[in-house]
Amino acid sequence: MALFQKKSPVPEAPMDLESVMKKYDRESNVRLWEGTPKLVVTCILAVFSLFCLYVTLFASWLEELRLTSFVAFIVFIGYLVFPAKKGVQKVNNLPWYDVILMILGTGSFLYFTFNAVSIIQQGTRFEWYQIVIGIVAILSLAEVCRRSVGLPILIVAGCFLLYALLFGLSNPSLWGKIKYSVRFLFYSKEGIFSTPINVCSKFIVVFIIFGAFLERTGIADFFINISNAVVGGFSGGPAKVAVVASAFEGMVSGSSVANTVGSGSVTIPLMKKTGYKPEFAAAAEASASTGGQIMPPIMGAAAFLMADYVQVPYSQIALKAILPAALYFVGIFVSVHLEAKKLGLRGLSREELPQIRPLLRQVYLLLPLLLLIYLVGTSQRSIQYAAALAILAAIFVSLFNKGNRITPKRILEALAAGGQGTITVAAACGIAGIIAGTITMTGLANMLINGIVTLAGNHVFVALFLTMICCIVLGMGVPTTATYCIMAATCAPILTRMGVPAIAAHFFVFYFGIVADLTPPVALAAYAGAAIAQANPMKTAITSTKLAIGAFIVPYVFALNPAMLFIDTTVWEVLFISVTAFLGIFALSASLEGYLFGHMPWYERLFSAVGGLMLIFPGLATDVPGIILVGLMFLAQVIRKKRVSLTA
Q: Which has the closest alpha carbon to 70: 62, 284, 14?
């Protein structure tokens, strides 16, 4: 099919991207502020960002004081930004009940802040009013989470709390159980103020602010334009642009839906115009955008939590993620290439492609990212200091970009955007801390571990499969950060006990928490892409799952053989693993597409799939038969192509 040959008789209505974001991304359902109220709210959000930067970089506060004041700020701005329900919002409207909830919630956390020392010293002796304050604080945070994140994570938390109050605690009276639960979940470091919120306040918030500044330098447009210039002219160019640009944008943003809508608004219409089916166009963008959370150097927020959980420097986490992430994006790239060949699609014309020389003059926009990679990779500075210096670099490089030059107003907007972007992650981290704390205080973690270990027996694969199902089910509608926190507390220890290295176990649950955004029936990134493409949502989700097949296979590989994560291996072994794994993902993608040099009959697809899987798994015992199977498929395709060319 030639470029632009298929034309719709009726022009499509322009897609309202804001409505798509509001439908599939709760973070976009915010209050409408205008005029002076908007300026006031913007300033409050900017002050929160400055507060976080100051506390993270310079202050040496008591941890209880730092964390409680951070969450108090989150509750305050959470009610300022997010309304009680979705839908059309009145301008400059803050209902009286939200004011009360804001005051009560913020006040409850500030009570802990201003009485932190005395609360620590009083041990287990708590007055009734302190328990009431703790209950109000937990409920107010839960309501912020409902507004900004959604109900699924609260349902999970509610089930665990209900289990604790009914069965999990030995105290005979209900009040005794409530008192113990509040003391454990609010007045200790085992609940709300545990690892997730601690990492969020120290590291994640600074990177969110960095992302907000980086967006205002115009780097997203630069990534799309440079991708267009490099691969846009090849067969099926717009789809390849979507993959490459999303891989680059993954260095900036860790939100699947935001990436899909942001770059998809440009790439999906181009893919459809080129000749891709709407479902495939939407799926290509959604699967590539979801990969942003596994793409170093700035991965999803959960990656920072992983570094803290497994006690490994973040630079090592990012390094170990390179090969799996590369396999993921190569798999999608190969699929869109073969789909283009199968449909006979061409790329963009020379007139439609951006000129490379003007783009090369904008290469300075990469300076903040390069600086961040250097500082994190060399460990010369702490992660938060590296991000702070990268923010200053982003401000500096913007001065050379007339269209996106940073002004005081834009600095204020970037700080406000960073503050607003922190609310969702922090609320999810707080509730995830409650879930993990409940599991700890009831001893449920050991029960789950022993139960699944007994069920799986000595079969690691069974435990991996059960863990995958848990991650995908829990990740449906729950942010990746919260999903990872829960699975890190429950399933990762199971895998570790069964012999999987700790970092491989945590990477495993991290990956499957992410692909939930693509997996039916709740595939938010795929549905957002389908809305832009005006495609069937379920077909788009199924196609997304097929394109992202690497994310479903690679975790099993590095869990069973962690050499792919550069664990207990050599440089030569890594090179060999890389070559065979890339060949394997190519063969697997060809099998799923049913096309290489021509259409593949079922037995060639079977050879290609089995051989590809064997090549992806490291080791000569699987690589040799894998090469033979893939070689037979390749040879059959070459012979068939020659026959076709001779008879043509």
A: 62
Measured in degrees and rounded to the nearest 5, phi and psi for residue 325 equal -65, -40
177 and 165 in contact (C-beta within 8 Å)?
yes
Successive 10-residue mean pLDDT values, the chain, 648 residues: 34 54 65 92 96 91 93 96 82 92 96 93 87 96 91 88 87 87 92 90 88 82 81 81 76 67 80 87 88 79 82 87 88 88 81 80 86 79 85 89 83 93 90 89 80 77 86 75 80 85 91 83 82 87 88 86 84 84 90 88 90 85 90 88 73
Q: What is the pLDDT of residue 378?
A: 76
Q: How far apart are CA 112 and CA 126, in angstroms?
A: 13
Question: Residues 418, 49: contact at Cβ < 8 Å?
Answer: yes
Q: What is the pLDDT of residue 436?
A: 86
SS3 assignment, position 188: coil
SS3 at position 599: strand
Are residues 332 and 271 in contact, defined by beta-carbon separation less than 8 angstroms?
A: no
**Distance, CA of 120 to CA of 98 (rounded, Å):** 31
pLDDT of residue 402: 77
Closest alpha carbon to 386 in 317, 325, 298, 291: 298
Q: CB count, 10 Å around CB of 647?
A: 6
C-alpha closest to that of 161 among 171, 169, 170, 152: 169
pLDDT at 18: 62
Contacting residues for 140 by C-beta, under 8 A, at least 6 apart: 75, 101, 104, 105, 106, 108
Coil, helix or strand at residue 520: coil
> Which residues face 595 on adjacent strands?
599
Q: What is the DSSP string of 222-276?
A: HHHHHHHHHHTTSTTHHHHHHHHHHHHHTTT---HHHHHHHHHHHHHHHHHHHT-
For residue 427, the model assigns a pLDDT of 93
Q: Which of 486, 461, 459 is nearest to 472 (CA)?
A: 486
d(CA 136, CA 265): 42
Q: Could you give the C-alpha distances from 350 to 87, 333, 361, 379, 409, in angstroms and in order?
A: 44, 22, 20, 44, 38
Q: Tell me the pLDDT of the chain averaged across its residues.
A: 84
| Reported pTM | 0.84
Instruction: Extract long-range pairs of 114-118: CB within 8 Å, 24+ residues apart.
Output: 116/62, 116/64, 116/65, 116/68, 117/62
Q: Does residue 192 contact residue 430 with C-beta atoms inside 8 Å? A: yes
Distance CA 301, CA 197 (A): 11
User: What is residue 346's predicted lDDT score, i.e. its pLDDT?
Assistant: 80
| Calpha distance 417→194 (Å, rounded) | 26
Check if the beta carbon of residue 224 is closer than 8 Å to that of residue 232: no
The pLDDT, as a whole number, for residue 20 is: 64
